[in-house]
Design a protein that fits this description.
alpha+beta, 16 helices, 49% helix, 9 strands, 413 residues
């Protein structure tokens, strides 16, 4: 058993680990994984505050995970609950208090909140001990709520959380608050950049880029597991890919409305100009100062490349420093880019972007039905898409479909 000093040292190491993650969704996963391991909790959830509501944003459950086939992920629906005294999480957010409950099935009338048994009934799970803490920032504003469930002893038996656990989880909540606020700021900056593009191109919505980013992470993770990529490297690259994928079409902000919003088929010359959004977007990240700049550059430049070499922009051998010639009428000579010469992140975002475009309704088309979408993806393996990436796509399809439902077209988070 760890001493109090050893526990505090571990909390410090975990806090430093958490601070390395920039993307909000991946941060929530990292926070909950570390907190559950520290308290040996079977399950847990994180809610993020949105106005007067808490949005159920991330969950983990070892018992339910073990019921799934190897390699499959737990699929869950997001929902919102009001910040009031009626639910445990709502009460914790409203009162800014940490609440420990030895057994939620033995709550009496001395507390205002109730436990919702519906999830247990639906999932055939038994929630017992629960420890719930508010996530706050430096100004003591509530950013969300973290909940760990069913602490276990060395024999795997569920036990109540102790008073010392209540004190310790507050340290995690403090670190989580700082990291969540920073990640929310990063997400907000990304979405502002995307909204600039959305003003020009109505297809480039917050929901679309969130989906493409989330699809890309799932596909990469499936591919990386097959390649035996170490977990630490996988986590670092997931973080970079998520943000880079969200900015894949940012170069469209430089394309004329006459082309972006033209309802008819583009002429050959107009299409050549449209294709320039790839290197115009990459131009924003050309002066690379971080791994993120490199990832965003690669994705913006290569997400329209095709495995068989028929995509664009290919190798532009003569590009002026401003990157304004090449495909759009300059003297740049272009040779095809194909196969693994296309960066991995570009190959992944390519399939994510096409999957979302086919699955989503647009002003100019209805969403394709799922069978037609999947048939099209299969047919493009080895031509448009890397066959290994297509395999990874189908291996994590349940997660992709869950993401498609989670981020609706009016979703801007």
């Amino acid at each position: 058993m760890m001493t109090e000093k050893e526990k505090m040292e571990l909390i410090t190491r975990i806090s430093l680990d958490i601070n390395e993650v920039k993307d909000l969704d991946l941060l929530l996963e990292k926070i909950l994984t570390n907190v559950r391991r520290f308290f040996n909790a079977d399950a847990g959830s994180i809610y993020i505050r949105e106005g007067d509501y808490l949005r159920f944003s991330y969950t983990q459950n070892n018992t339910l995970q073990k019921r799934l086939a190897p390699g499959r992920k737990l699929i869950y629906n997001t929902f919102s609950i009001p910040i009031n005294n009626w639910s445990i999480a709502g009460y914790v957010a409203k009162k800014r208090e940490t609440v420990a409950i030895p057994d939620v099935y033995e709550l009496d009338g001395s507390v205002p909140y109730k436990f919702d048994f519906k999830f247990d009934l639906i999932s055939d799970y038994k929630t017992r001990s629960v420890l719930t803490v508010p996530i706050t920032n430096q100004h003591h504003n509530v950013l969300g709520v973290m909940q760990v469930i069913n602490q276990q002893d060395d024999k795997g038996e569920v036990i109540p959380f102790s008073p010392s656990d209540e004190s310790l989880i507050k340290h995690f909540a403090t670190s989580a608050g700082l990291a969540v606020e920073r990640a929310q700021t990063t997400r907000s900056i990304l979405l502002r950049m995307i909204r600039m593009t959305e003003l020009r191109d109505p297809k480039e919505t917050g929901a679309h880029v969130n989906r493409v980013g989330a699809y890309s992470v799932e596909i990469f993770e499936e591919w990386a597991k097959g390649k035996m990529i170490p977990q630490e490297e996988m986590d670092r690259k997931k973080d970079l890919l998520k943000m880079a994928a969200m900015l894949h079409d940012v170069g469209k902000v430089a394309i004329s409305d006459l082309i972006l919003k033209k309802p008819e088929r583009l002429t050959i010359d107009e299409y050549e100009i449209m294709k320039s959004h790839t290197y115009l977007g990459a131009r924003l990240f050309k002066d690379m100062q971080s791994d993120f700049d490199e990832a965003a550059y690669e994705v913006a430049l290569t997400h329209h490349e095709k495995w068989d070499g028929t995509g664009y922009p290919g190798y532009i051998e003569t590009i002026p420093d401003a990157l304004l010639e090449g495909l759009s009428g300059g003297n740049g000579r272009v040779t095809p880019k194909a196969g693994t010469d296309i960066p991995l992140f570009g190959r992944i975002v390519a399939i994510s972007d096409v999957y979302d475009a086919l699955s989503s309704k647009r002003t100019y088309k209805d969403a394709w039905d799922e069978g037609r979408v999947l048939e099209e993806i299969r047919s493009l393996s080895g031509r448009h898409f890397d066959p290994e990436i297509v395999d990874a796509f189908f291996d994590c399809l349940d997660s992709l479909k869950s993401i498609l439902k989670r981020y609706s077209e009016d979703e801007q988070h």
